[in-house]
Amino acid sequence: MRKALFIVLLFCFSCKNNLFNKLDKSLENGISKKEAIKRVPSEQRIAMEWLITHMPENDKKSLSLEFLITNSEYAFKTKEHFSWAKHVPDQIFLNYVLPYASLNERRDEWRKDFFYKFSPLVKNANSAYEGAVILNNKIFEMVGVEYSTKRPKADQSPYESIEAGLASCTGLSFLLIDACRSVGIPARFVGTPMWHNDSGNHSWVEIWDGGWHFTGAAEPVENQLNQVWFADLASKAKTGDMKYGIFAATWNKTDLYFPMDWLPGIKKYNAVDVTDRYLTQTKIDSGLVAVSIRALNNSGERESVDIIVTGENNYFFEGQSKNETYDLNDHLTLFLPKGKVFTIKYKNDSQILEVENECLVSLSVK
Question: Which of 137, 233, 270, 316 has the highest Cβ tally under 10 A?
Fold first, then answer.
């Protein structure tokens, strides 16, 4: 009887130990959650536990304890330096300031570097909104990165983009998000796998200041957020559609994955469907359709060319097509009445356009 009881107790103790080890052994490189929490100040311990619990599994095998400690230290340091960071709700801070990455990008140790690099830019800003606008206007020239389809890869980390000097909308967004987080501005990655007209995917950034605001990375519109070239495209997205919807990346556990155009089929990163927030951004007269115009040289590259569009009833529009430094889907766009005929004048040439449906007009320039 005593022997049987001893065996039962031993089995229970063994199960308890195994369970404890599974809960405690958060990082495969031998660093436990318990040790990580112990190494940070008391005010950071809940955040450290949250970070380790929610971080991607592969990061638990590759990142060091020192990486996590520095990340936490400088995330909390923003609360000491910026008024907006002090008032960020805990769940927003944990999910959109504390994380060191958004999706699958290479893990860079940007937190300390960016804190000292970008803090001076926003030291006189009065809000997270104002700070985000300043960063979007200044950091890309400061670090020497611009948009280009010739970037090495789509999902570049901040330092990979800085090394290349070129980045896609995805890489630019990763960079702006981390710059914002480095100064305590909650920021998250947002994108669509495909626009409604199958013209391509796009990525951008949302920042939190009492609510979510959006902006194109390296595409500032003066001192305003919520002003973007893709507003009409976004307004036609489809809620609940994994191809045509709009999604925001999150470290919280959700029932949705973030559909990454550059890694199709990978479903390991969490997301929330934010499509509905964009459906009301533009209200276009139903009798008008979007006409986008681009000018292509002999090499098939976009050029910046003066464009004049004329039509009946003295219609006159003047603008400039966009070159390769703009997003691949960012074109000179105007809304014209369906069924009408217009003349597009450019350089020493012209083209007649009869408006039927939404379209992209390609002009050949020499």
Answer: 233
DSSP states along 134-189:
HHHHHHHHHHT-EE-TTSS-TT--HHHHHHHSEE-HHHHHHHHHHHHHHTT--EEE
**Interstrand relation of 247-249 and 212-215 (parallel, antiparallel or unpaired):** unpaired
DSSP at 302 = B
Burial 27-58 (b: 16+ CB within 10 A, else e): beeebbbeebbebbeeebeebbbbbbebbbee
Question: Measuring CA to CA, how many Å separate 120 from each of 80, 85, 359?
Answer: 14, 15, 44
**CB-based burial label for 319 (10 Å; 0-12, 13-18, 19+):** middle
Continuous H helices in the chain: 2-24, 33-39, 45-54, 57-62, 65-81, 83-86, 90-96, 111-122, 128-143, 158-164, 169-182, 231-234, 275-278
- Structural domains in the chain? 26-278 (no CATH), 288-364 (2.60.40.10)
Q: Is 299 exposed, middle or buried (CB count within 10 Å of its CB: 0-12, 13-18, 19+)?
A: exposed
3-state secondary structure of 3: helix
Residues pairing with 270 in the sheet: 257
Backbone angles phi, psi at 358, to 5 degrees: -55, 135
Percent helix / strand / coil, the chain, rounded to 5: 35, 20, 40
Q: Give the pair of three-digit tokens for residue 210.
A: 């009492």
- pLDDT per residue of the chain (366 residues) written in tens, 0 to 9: 444 444 444 444 444 344 334 334 445 454 577 888 889 999 999 999 999 999 998 998 899 999 999 999 999 999 999 999 999 999 999 999 999 999 999 999 999 999 999 999 999 999 999 999 999 999 999 999 999 999 999 999 999 999 999 999 999 999 999 999 999 999 999 999 999 999 999 999 999 999 999 999 999 999 999 999 999 999 999 999 999 999 999 999 999 999 999 999 999 999 999 999 999 755 666 688 889 999 999 888 899 999 989 988 888 888 899 898 888 888 998 889 888 899 999 988 889 999 988 889 999 887
